[in-house]
Amino acid sequence: MATMADVARHAGVSLSTVSYVLSGKRSISGPTRERVLSAIAATNFAPNARGQALASRRSRTIVLLFPALAHDLGTMNMEFVDGTLQTAREHGYSVMISVSDDPYEETERAARRGFADGVLVMEVELEDPRVALLQARDFPFALIGHQRDNAGIDFVDLDFAHAIGLCLDHLAELGHRRVGLLLPLIPTRSASYGPSSRSREAFTAGLATRGLTGELFICPATATGGYDIVSRITATDPGMTGLIANSPQLVPGMLRAGRAAGLDVPDDLSIMALASHRVAEAASPPLTAVDFPAVEMGRLGAEMLIARLEDGPASRPTQHLLRGDLTLRGTTGPAPRRPPPP
Known about the structure:
Elements: H1 4-11, H2 15-23, H3 30-43, H4 49-56, E1 61-65, H5 75-90, E2 94-98, H6 103-110, E3 118-121, H7 129-136, E4 141-144, E5 155-158, H8 160-173, E6 178-185, H9 194-209, E7 213-220, H10 223-236, E8 242-245, H11 251-260, E9 270-275, H12 277-282, E10 288-291, H13 294-311, E11 319-322, E12 326-327
Parallel strand pairs: 1-2, 1-3, 3-4, 4-5, 5-11, 6-7, 6-8, 8-9, 9-10
Antiparallel strand pairs: 10-12
Helix pairs in contact: 1-2, 1-3, 5-13, 6-7, 8-9, 10-11
């Protein structure tokens, strides 16, 4: 197996020059760098990743803080993970996933020098104490989600206000006049959880401007949670004919509750959600949804964090607020002309 000394002899340079080319710690002229790289290829030299990490004082590991995975391994959550892992791998980084029930303690651990190079934070609150901790430690991080104040912070998020607006517009155009929004209760997050807060505000503000009435419902982020809420709605509020799920985990239960009440979706009850293409297409019937680009958000989050690690703290922050498209499938239709059966 070739060594760095073999590379140095083949390239006609010193051992330290080979080390500098591998570590990037010192500028090396173009021709010399090319000779070293050619020698590496000719000798089939494979740098020792652990040794390089120790020499550069970098682990080439990032931590994905994703507490929801402790209680939900659903398709869309795994899409976030897939996007993060693929991008990290392309850039030569490993990913450690934390699902700790105490995300603040886990953030403290991750911020200790040597454990990881940076942190990708998910399930972001409007004023997230994990962000304050990472800023106080001057530790590199990026957010999948965003706070109320994001000055100087790299983040990517879905534009929830726009997504809820698309849902309300669609239901209003179909003639629905009373609608509901189901928000998932996230065990690891507070009432200031960003997606829920922004969706709630957009829904409340959007009703009046579209001539609608409606109600908010908070329930566990499970099929059972969706079932219980829709069962209650069909029993007590038959005039509510359009429902929006802020989480696709609720949808199977919502559909089941509609069937149990003798309602047809979409003839008697329209149901739509914020969901990725994969999740929406897998539903039965296929789900009308505003696309939630989970893979893309995981990819962009990893790219931003790695760019921060490679370019240093002086680089300008990157911020992405993504807008999903509305895709019509099989779960929404015109408002029923007559009240649904009791």
